[in-house]
Design goal:
single chain; mainly alpha; Arc Repressor Mutant, subunit A; Four Helix Bundle (Hemerythrin (Met), subunit A); 2 domains; 12 helices; 2 strands
């Protein structure tokens, strides 16, 4: 069991979250966020026994009912397990659902490592270039027109990292849906947080995102021209550039923090 000092630290963070969060934020969501962060960021390590329900309820100042609901959600994400003889424990990382939006957000809320960036872009490269090739073969004229409209919107905000993220997300999600494959289309929602994480990591680029527009245009042009190979290659080039942007932004952030 974790010492009470650790529980007190967690409870303090919850109090800070309460004070700074919006009025509509639910107590359940705040407790879930705090415990999830503690697990994913390593304060509660795999194999660690978790505090009993009474201690945990007291530390967070919540009822056992709220705590039980939080535990149920964390178990559904693969983070914890409860057994009759051993009680609650943090599960090995191999059991965690890293594509769960909350788990992704908790993972990337702390300092991001080189390994984190590599894994994020390996995921995108495993999905998006193939989707682009299929989109070039199967997209309808209406879908192509919509993609080109989003491209125009991106052009208009290319110098503003915050505003650029939204149409950029739509652009990449549209390509997944343009494949005509419902399973791949469903990945648009599944990897939304992964996309947003990569956008967030690079949105403080001092040069904005206008430099990425030629590659976005190449992607859209290849899809509209029914060039599957060109779409795949353009998306690979775009992801290479995006990963480099993220690495530069992280390096710059690290120099500032030092």
């Amino acid at each position: 069991m974790k010492p009470r000092s650790t529980l007190a630290a967690q409870a303090h963070r919850l109090a800070v979250t309460r004070a700074s969060g919006s009025a509509s934020a639910g107590l359940h969501a705040m407790v879930l966020n705090q415990i999830g962060l503690s697990i994913v960021q390593g304060e509660l390590a795999p194999g660690d026994p978790l505090p009993n329900a009474d201690d945990w309820s007291a530390a967070y100042g919540v009822s056992r009912t709220v705590l039980r609901e939080v535990i149920k959600v964390l178990a559904g994400k693969g983070l914890i397990e409860s057994r009759t003889k051993t009680g609650m424990r943090v599960r090995p990382r191999s059991n965690w659902n890293f594509l769960d939006p909350d788990v992704l957000a908790w993972r990337y809320s702390a300092r991001v490592s080189e390994a984190d960036v590599r894994e994020l872009f390996e995921l995108r490269r495993a999905i998006e270039p193939m989707a682009g090739a299929l989109a070039a073969e199967r997209a309808t004229p209406d879908q192509i027109a919509q993609l080109e409209a989003v491209l125009v919107e991106m052009e208009g905000v290319a110098d503003d990292g915050e505003r650029f993220a939204e149409p950029d997300l739509v652009f990449h999600q549209m390509i997944l849906r343009m494949t005509g494959n419902e399973l791949i289309g469903s990945l648009a929602a599944l990897i939304e947080t992964a996309l947003l994480m990569s956008f967030r990591l690079s949105n403080d680029n001092p040069h904005g995102h206008r430099h990425s527009m030629p590659l976005h245009r190449d992607v859209a042009g290849s899809i509209s021209g029914r060039d599957a190979t060109g779409a795949r290659q353009a998306l690979l080039a775009l992801l290479d550039q995006a990963e480099e942007d993220v690495r530069r932004a992280i390096a710059a952030r690290s120099r500032i923090q030092e």
